[in-house]
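Entry 14: structure prediction run for Cellobiose dehydrogenase-like cytochrome domain-containing protein. Input pasted below.
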Amino acid sequence: MRALSHIISVLLLLLSSSDGTLASPTLNHELETRQSTPTIIRYCNPATSICYLEYSWGPSVPVFRVAIPDTASSGTQFDTLLQVIAPSTLGWVGFSWRGRMTLNPLTVVWPNGNTGVTVSSRWANARTQPTLYPQATYRILSASRNATHWTVETVCSGCSTWSDGALNPSGSQSFAWAVSRTAVPQPANTASSFSVHDNYGVFSGSMSLAKVPKAAFDAYVRGGR
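Run finished. Output tokens:
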């Protein structure tokens, strides 16, 4: 009965999210049980007036926020903004711009020192350790770390298109994430190896939630906070 109950709860979760978009869980439960169902909303920072597509799923999973300029068009290069708010228990966090591990830009971030965060651009051709991906470059706008969380916001140039695909700025877009409790062996090195993930998930959301007026977006990514 317990196993049947778990299967039913997973099926219900696959069929529902706060705005009707797909929010798929992993069946790996090495991390603690989540305390809520996934939520996908438009979040606007009152301090900066920058709005994001925000994904959250309880205290054990990072909050992910994505923003793009409202002039973005499919198949073209445009900067993308990614914010990650991760529990301090996590050693690294990965974000996929296509909704799967392979054949798309991967953003991998991890804490570095008392206040810093390292951002590494990666690519995976198979389900093996992702290699460096120089076609996407990052500039960190802000990073912080305290007793409960570490946070980074970074702008990516090269994450909107890749060899056989692109973000869809005018419709629904799939993303994926992966996390591990294990710290990376070389925190200051963007080429550091890292462990296999402990948990992962996939979600989709309307990119209309992520759009920011281009002038405001450009001013923000140029100057940060």
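Notes: The chain has a mean pLDDT of 87. Will compare against the previous run tomorrow.
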